[in-house]
Amino acid sequence: xxxxxxxxxxxxxxxxxxxxxxxxxxxxxxxxxxxxxxxxxxxxxxxxxxxxxxxxxxxxxxxxxxxxxxxxxxxxxxxxxxxxxxxxxxxxxxxxxxxxxxxxxxxxxxxxxxxxxxxxxxxxxxxxx
Length: 129
Prior knowledge:
66% helix, 2 domains, elongated, 7 helices
């Protein structure tokens, strides 16, 4: 194994993180499950660092490609993009809020508008005595 290959090999926590993050795309919780840490704030920091690593990104891509179909891969790409925009501390607040809104809608956290339509026969009985 060359020095370059060693740099591409994931640690056990990194591999577990990759496997966990594709379950729900919530980085801090995935890192918590992978590492056993219960401090979600520090898990969020570590998850953010891992998500920036090319070898982690590549492993996640391989895992999702193996599991998901073409439409689902596109959805995952959108979700990853929204998460990156939402979590970018240097990004515009309006962009970050819009990305948060898209993520909330994707997770069905709220419904903006609900319509119900129904067709039914109505019979009026006029037999009051």
